[in-house]
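During the no-cost extension, the postdoctoral fellow (Dr. R.K.) reprocessed legacy sequence entries with the updated structure-token encoder. One reprocessed record is reproduced below for audit purposes.
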Amino acid sequence: MKRKVVQEVELKLTGSQGALKAAWASPALKAGRISSWAPERLISTYYDTEDRALKAAGLTLRVRDKGQGAFVQTVKSTAGPQTAALVRTEDEAAIDSPAPHLDAVREPTFRRIVKRALKQGLKPLFTVYVDRKTIEVAGEGGARIEASLDVGEARNPDTGDIAPIGEIELELMEGRPAALYALARILAAEGALRLSLASKAARGFRLADKTVPGHAKAARLTLAPKCDAEAALAEILQNSTAHLFGNIDAVVIAGAPEGAHQMRVALRRLRAALVLFKKRIDPRIASGLVLQAKYYANALGAARDLDVFAAETLAPLKDLMPDEACLRLIASRAEAARQAAWSDARRALDTQAFTSFLLDLSAATDEAIIAAKTTGARRSAKRFARKAIARRWRKAFETGADFVHLSPHDRHPLRIELKKLRYAAVFFASLYPEETVKPYLKRLSRLQDDFGAMNDALVAADIADRLAAPHFEDTAETRAGLARAAGLITGWRKAVMDAAWADAQNRWAELCAAPQFWEKAGRGD
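Re-encoded structure tokens follow.
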């Protein structure tokens, strides 16, 4: 039985049939072609238990029908994307029947998980039918890349539901990931393609389970105690990039409010990391990524503001005042504005420009990972962290120097500085004892909650005023109702803001007096 365990590095681009055809005809593929294979018809059936034990363990198992009684079983890791290029371990073996074979699984961890799943009972969940064309091309720097054009569909045998599949898959056979991104940029531009973050298996599971992509929070970041600043940069960039990538489908496909929130948080974390390490990244690359991250965070801003307005202002206010018809009137106008803002946000992400940003970000992250593995005496991450966090605290302290006299307008810059301080503290928190970090972050988080409540109050009042602006076709009664609703919202939110401000003054004093954990010795010092 022929078996192999390999690590694959691949990325996928998707688009319309016409866009895929145009990209496949790219001069870049023709000029770099090394070899090609005969077109194939691939029929792959994916298996899991009733309760999706393999999926929960981060694995997929498929059996591909090669025809004439030949089959190939493949077990893959399915960790979420850390960058645009999916890096997955693949255990593949030729088998002699369509049923999963335990003895064909070579990788020890995979074998243990599949053995447990077989005892529970594996069943076929969906089948993917794909017509594939494959060529091998030369990439920059002597790289070899396998390019495949896949067109077909995933089918749920129980329901008959179908999900179309159309993508160009690029797999790095030899060389650096930079070559993969360089070719992807060319194809994306020539075919107006977009980056696809979901594997065929992920799309099949959505079909089988009738689910939509969910949001993702940032994974816990743990730096090695004795790592250097370059290694810390690589880990922090990868963590921030994974956070961003984990929410794109939740926004573009599912239209999930929490997905939009988490995506904006990820973009802010990314900007904070790039600025924090600006002397360790090519300044042209870093500045470009910072500007693009800000642009896309802003593109999501209106949708996010209206989500918060609907859930945290209108909903509780309508519960408090159920007889106020004016609130139902402004809610209707708010929902129309929210839907329009969401359409604008999704259009901004469904572009080749956004794909280029993701490819550039991924390339920078992968280069940072490669650079972190090079040898040489470099600055300790702990020393870097000490100065970086201290610098962020000084900036916040200076911005809030006259705290009690800050006007609502002047509080916004301090809110931003507190966010930057928190990102820096969280990035490096694992380098310090938890008992010194946790109390500080808790105080900082509570203060940020107060500033968030004050900001939401100001935004809510601004949205209410805009929604109440008279339209040409509005009757006098409608105008009066909208004006009353705006007044109620502004008054209620002012009370919330005043309470938050009173609380913030106490919490600011507590934060200023709190022990500064970064001045203590880090782990391993």
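The two ends are 52 Å apart (CA to CA). The longest helix spans residues 283-320. The remaining legacy entries will be reprocessed before the final report is submitted.
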